[in-house]
Amino acid sequence: MTVQILPERFKTEDQRALVADLGAVLERAPLFVPRMPRSGKPFSVRMTNCGPLGWVSDIDGYRYQPHHPETGAPWPEIPQRLLDLWHEVAGVPVGPEACLVNLYGPGTKLGLHQDRDERTFEAPVVSVSLGDTAVFRIGGTTRKAATRSMRLASGDVIVFGGDDRLAYHGIDRILSGSSSLLPEGGRINLTLRRVTPF
Ligand code: MD3
Ligand code: FE
Questions:
Q1: CA 112 to CA 167: how far, in whole Å?
Q2: Which residues pair with 50 in a beta bridge?
Q3: Quick check: CB of 25 below 6 Å from ligand 1?
Q4: Ligand 1 centre from 153 Cα, in Å?
Q5: Which DSSP letter does residue 35 get?
Q6: Of 169, 171, 167, 166, nearest to 188 (Cα)?
Q7: Could you tell me the distance, in angstroms and rounded to a whole number, from the CA of residue 39 to the centre of ligand 2?
Q8: What ipTM was estimated for this complex?
Q9: 51: left (phi over 0), alpha (psi -120 to 50) or beta
Q10: What is the DSSP string of 80-122?
Q11: Quick one: what percent of the chain has pLDDT higher than 90?
């Protein structure tokens, strides 16, 4: 079992506390629109990061870097309740280096992809969903392997490790209006990652 699902790991009060933590992150690291390498085509998801390293994508490629691509400021720290979650579920003796914050409005999709920009795959990716439910798709380690669909609801945590660390995955759609957590609606996904070997 290399995908561990923790349904409603964060109850409503803790979800609200996480949203407040993220408000402070967004003040210091505003959302930006990532762009596809080479084409420069914008993603429909908006994003930012916290932690010593953040994932960015622009016309030059995908990479991790220590500063915001538009303000040039270092990323803010990862909120303590997310560090606590990581240490509880990740099963590695080191902390996360990157927390990617993805914001999905209605109609936003994320195509099937692998996460392989990290320099180590030894640690799992830990994902937290907040707000509207997403229809998530996960397959195998080749693009043609069979896929299955799962719903990710507000407060759910999933840990992708072992064989599934390199599984293809994406977001097919967002179920608008399924949660009242975020005042403007939509969905936030947080992914905690180790980037460098340990
Ligand atoms: C399975 N994010 O940021 S979270 C991403 O909902 C990303 O924002 C999606 O894919 C989102 O790269 C999916 C679930 C997830 C995250 C990372 C994984 C599933 C994963 C890495 C390996 C396998
Ligand atoms: Fe991904």
A1: 10
A2: 99
A3: no
A4: 14
A5: B
A6: 171
A7: 20
A8: 0.98
A9: left
A10: HHHHHHHHHHS-SSS--SEEEEEEE-TT--EEEE----SS--S
A11: 99
**Spatial CB neighbours of 171, under 8 Å, sequence gap ≥ 6:** 104, 108, 109, 110, 134, 135, 136, 137
Each residue of 59-94: b (16+ CB within 10 Å) or e? eeeeebeeebeeeeeebbebbeebbebbeebbeeee
What gap in Å lies between CA 136 and CA 173, rounded to an integer?
A: 8
Helix/strand number for the chain, H first, E second? 2, 12
CA distance 164 to 162: 5
Q: What residue owns the CA closest to ligand 1's atom 17?
A: 125
| Length of the chain counted residue by residue | 198
Q: Which domains does the chain have, with CATH numbers?
A: 3-33+41-193 (2.60.120.590)
Q: How far apart are CA 115 and CA 95, in angstroms?
A: 18
Pocket flag, ligand 1, residue 57 (CB < 6 Å): no
Report the distance separating Cα 130 and Cα 17, nearest Å.
11
Q: 120-165: per-residue pLDDT in tens? A: 999 999 999 999 999 999 999 999 999 999 999 999 999 999 999 9
Closest CA to 21 of 1, 41, 51: 51
H-type alpha helices, the chain: 12-28, 80-89
